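User: Can you fold this complex?
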Amino acid sequence: MLADHLPVHRLRLRTERLELRLPESFDELAALADAAAAGVHDPDFMPFGVPWTEGGPEAVARSVALWYHRAIGRWDAQDWGFPFVVFHEGKPIGVQVLRGTRFAVTREVSTGSWIGLAFQGRGLGKEMRAAVLHLAFAELDAEYATSGSYDGNGASAGVSRRLGYREDGIQHPVVQDVRRTEQRWRLDREAWEAHRRHEVAVEGLDRDVLDMLGLGVSESDA
Amino acid sequence: MLTDYLPIYRIRLRTERLELRLPDLGDLVALADQAAAGVHDPDFMPFPTPWTEAEPVERGRATIQWQMRAIMNATPEDWTLPFVTVFDGQVVGMQEVAAKDFKVKREGATGSWLGLAHHGKGVGTEMRAAVLDFLFNGLGADYAVSASFDGNEPSAGVSRKLGYRADGIEHHVLRNERRVDRRWRLTREDWEAHRRHEVAIEGLDEDVLRALGLGPDA
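Assistant: Here's the predicted assembly.
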C-alpha cells in the first residue's frame, strides 16, 4: 500500500459534500487533470501567482499531473504541502493545498486551491477550505492559517472573510509582467473557532502521519 | 489517461524475461518494498549517495520521492527516465537512463539497482541491455556511459559483457573514506558487436521524442 511508505496517503477529510484525500492512482490524477483542463477561471483574470493556467488545456493538465509528483517528491517533515484532491460525488473537482514550514515551531499553515469552473458558486470552495482548517486547528494544533487572494478575486476573498480571516497587509507580485496586488489574509485560532460552520471528519491521522509533519515523538524529544 | 499529459509514461521496453516501464503508483509501492527489503550487502556501499544507509521505511519512502522528482524535473534538455524492472510480473528493481542535451551529445548514462533476492540471475544484464537498445536503437545515441565502485563486480561485469571499455576513474569520499569509481564507456560499434538481447520498444512516438529533446521542432 502506498500509505505504508507515505502515511499521508491514509488521511481523509470528509465534509457534508466533499472528500479530501491524496490520489490513489494515476487514473484519479488524470481525472483531476481533466477537470483542470476544462477550465478553472475566467481566462481574462489570472488568479494565480504562478500562472500555470496560461497554456492550452494540455499544458494545464500536464501541470496538474506534475503538481502531485512535486508535492510528494519534495515532501519534507520540516517543509510539507498536502496535495489534497477534492472529490465531489466521487469525482475530482479541484485541489486544496495545506502547507507547513517548520510547523512544529511556527504552528502556522498556509492554503491554496482551485476548483473547476463548473463547480464554482456553490460554496464548495469554502467547504474545502474549512476541511483543511479543521485538520490544522482541531487536529494539528495550529495557531494561525494564512492565505492570499489577488485583487479582484472576490470568490477567494469571500471564502477567507466568511471563515474569519482578517486582512493582513498586501504584497506586489509580478505576474505575466504586470504588477498585481495580493491581499494577504490571516486567521487565528479564536477567529477560526468563532466562524466554524462545517462538520469535518478526519480519518487516518496516526503517529506515522504526524511523523511526516515533523510532529513525531522523535522530534519533540529532540 | 495520464499518458495523454505525461507522454514519457508511454514507453515500454520488453526483453525475453523483462518489462521496463515508468512506474505508476502501484509499481512505486512494489519498488519501495524492494528498497526496504534491501538491495545490497550492507558491508559494501555501491552508491555514491548512500541512500541505503537509512532505515527500511526511510529507504522505501526515499525511493518513491526520488522517482517523483525524476519525473517532475525531466525537461527536453535534461531528463532521467527512472524505469522499474518487472520480472515474472513483479517489480524487482529499477534501471534509470539519463541524458543532458542529448540531441547534441548523443550520450546517455545509466544506473540501476535490484532487490537482493533477484541478484545473480542475469536480470541486471538484461535490463541494462534494454535501456542500451532504447538509447542506441530508439534514440540514435553514439555513446552510453556507466560507473561502478571498485569491488562492485556484478555491475562491472554487466558493463564488460555488454562491450563497455574502461574510461578512467574518479575518487569519491564516502563514509569518510576514499572510494574509487570506475567509469565505463560504450560506443555504438561496441554495442552492436555485443548485442545478445532482443529488445522491443513500445510507445516511443513523436510526443515522447519531443519530451526527450528530439522532436522535429526541437
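The longest strand of chain A covers residues 91-101. Residues 57-73 of chain A form the longest helix (17 residues).
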